[in-house]
Amino acid sequence: MRRWSLLATVVRVAADRRQCPYYQASGCILDQLEKVCEGEAPELVAPAAEENLWMCCCPEPYVPCSPNESDTTCVKTIGAEIKAAGEELSLQGLMNIREKLLDAATASCGDLVRATAPAKCGEWPKAMPKLMCEMLTWQWEELGDGNAAEFAQYDCPMIQENQATGGDERKGHRLNWDPRRSREL
């Protein structure tokens, strides 16, 4: 009986996160933080690059979508931040995008973790463990990626029942259109 109660709570909490219209984009942007710190910042904004930032605006991040399927607010927010940054986004630029998207839907995104300090490569996971846990959870539930040691390092629950299946099918894709040429920008 207790096992079913725990599972029901886990399912409810995951459903609550997904009520935020920017849950997918938020998790994807957090995933991009790792890529920037690994030296992939230039590719991040190139629409033809694999798993680029623009794909965070698709209904299922990293699964290609058409311009009509992408979230207009997300595309505009990324475009404005890139324009302000001069084509290459920093870690803080990514955090700015995420915060603006969450602010756009505050009522339904209130449970998602907010940054508490400027993000710096090599420091943000330890400085903001709850944010790291949110990223790990998104990777686990959406891509099926993760390992118990990393979850434990950040005191983050790794709910086996929530591991995505078929996550590898979402990886390695590109857009076939250029959001930078969007009418909205």
Q: Nutshell version of this structure?
A:
Residues 162-185 are annotated as: Disordered. This protein has a domain at 16-106 and 114-119 and 167-181.
Notes on the structure:
- With 185 residues, the chain is mainly α.
- It has a domain at 16-106 and 114-119 and 167-181.
- The protein is built from 9 helices and no strands.
- α4 runs antiparallel to α5 (91-104).
- The longest helix is centred in the N-terminal third of the chain and has 17 residues, at 2-18.
- It is globular.
What characteristics describe this protein?
185 residues; disordered N terminus
What does the secondary structure layout of this molecule look like, with pairings?
Layout: H1 2-18, H2 23-37, H3 41-44, H4 72-85, H5 91-104, H6 106-109, H7 124-127, H8 129-143, H9 148-153
**What's the N-to-C terminus distance?**
53 Å
* Class from secondary-structure proportions: mainly alpha
For the CA atoms, what is the radius of gyration? 16 Å
Query: Beta-strand percentage?
Result: under 5%
Oligomeric form of this entry? single chain
Q: Total strand count, please?
A: 0
Number of helices: 9
